[in-house]
Amino acid sequence: MRPILLQGHERSITQIKYNREGDLIFSVAKDTVVNAWYSANGERLGTYNGHTGAVWCVDVDWDTKHVLTGSADNSCRLWDCQTGKQLALLKTSSAVRTCGFDFSGNIIMYSTDKQMGYQCFLHYFDLRDPSQIEDNEPYIKVPCSESKITSAVWGPLGEYVIAGHENGEINQFSAKSGEIIKTVKEHTKQINDIQTSIDLTMVITASKDNTAKLFDSYTLDHIKTFKTERPVNSAAVSPIMDHVVMGGGQEAMEVTTTSTRIGKFEARFFHAAFEEEFGRVKGHFGPINCVAFHPDGKSYSSGGEDGYVRIHYFDPQYFEFEIES
């Protein structure tokens, strides 16, 4: 089936997120625009306007009431999902790299970059306390002096945040005290992306060391490794099958000298148990920056350096893939 092409960004896509029901997709890019789309037909519902820098991250809460975005304009913003109205503006000293709602939608977290003399911090805000938002004072602010956070997700029950770092470490930060509960270092280079499985029992990491790895989200035990020949920018676990999809490719600045074939710009499918690649899907004209499965598992989306979001539909039982011998 032909993919649905979503054209609403002028620069490379940085993150895409489905809501819980899967009827909406939220996409952000380096062009300041936050887009909301219908996932069924690719129609653009609207935009959330206000950021003045590249938007690095987006999240939507459990009942699709609020949207959270973080940007290089040194702000994290909370939006009303339906009206597009800005509900809160949290100013920071440096770019906001990751953000997310916990399961209840009451607590948000975001992390800032280590730049311009400021170190990386992980912030926790309780949205039920208006004074925290008005005073821009989180109830916990965790310094990360060793290595900056490059990607982070909430763990099960909102007890902690699982964060991947520039040096390849993964940490669990408590949401109550801010202390580090567990640390593992399975990757040798920067972690580009962390995503959870649909039941939050596992997380998958994508790294510049050309691998994606599956971990137990509670114990951080390493379960599986999926190897490629190129840096992996994003990886997602299928909600219904034993499949993993990965996107990546050559560094963007080297892309102009290579064809799409050599650049390895395909989305790649691996079997989650056997760690074997069984298919590739072409389409993007540059590295894939982010991938996400639809919550029903019957489609997935990818966002690329080329500024396009592509929705691919398939029947997971009957894949039509180009398999390389």
UniProtKB/TrEMBL annotation:
WD repeats: 6-47, 48-89, 184-225, 281-311
InterPro entries: eIF3i, WD40/YVTN_repeat-like_dom_sf, WD40_repeat_dom_sf, WD40_rpt
SUPFAM superfamilies: WD40 repeat-like
GO MF annotation, one: translation initiation factor activity
GO cellular component terms, semicolon-separated: eukaryotic 43S preinitiation complex; eukaryotic 48S preinitiation complex; eukaryotic translation initiation factor 3 complex, eIF3m
Cell location: Cytoplasm
Keyword line: Cytoplasm, Initiation factor, Protein biosynthesis, Repeat, WD repeat
Coiled coil: none
Pfam families in UniProt: EIF3I (PF24805)
Biological processes annotated in GO: formation of cytoplasmic translation initiation complex
Family: Belongs to the WD repeat STRAP family. Belongs to the eIF-3 subunit I family.
Entry function: Component of the eukaryotic translation initiation factor 3 (eIF-3) complex, which is required for several steps in the initiation of protein synthesis. The eIF-3 complex associates with the 40S ribosome and facilitates the recruitment of eIF-1, eIF-1A, eIF-2:GTP:methionyl-tRNAi and eIF-5 to form the 43S pre-initiation complex (43S PIC). The eIF-3 complex stimulates mRNA recruitment to the 43S PIC and scanning of the mRNA for AUG recognition. Component of the eukaryotic translation initiation factor 3 (eIF-3) complex, which is involved in protein synthesis of a specialized repertoire of mRNAs and, together with other initiation factors, stimulates binding of mRNA and methionyl-tRNAi to the 40S ribosome. The eIF-3 complex specifically targets and initiates translation of a subset of mRNAs involved in cell proliferation.
HAMAP family reported for this sequence: eIF3i
Subunit note: Component of the eukaryotic translation initiation factor 3 (eIF-3) complex, which is composed of 13 subunits: EIF3A, EIF3B, EIF3C, EIF3D, EIF3E, EIF3F, EIF3G, EIF3H, EIF3I, EIF3J, EIF3K, EIF3L and EIF3M.
Name of the protein in its database record: Eukaryotic translation initiation factor 3 subunit I
Species the sequence originates in: Scaphirhynchus platorynchus (Shovelnose sturgeon)
Organism phylogeny: Eukaryota, Metazoa, Chordata, Craniata, Vertebrata
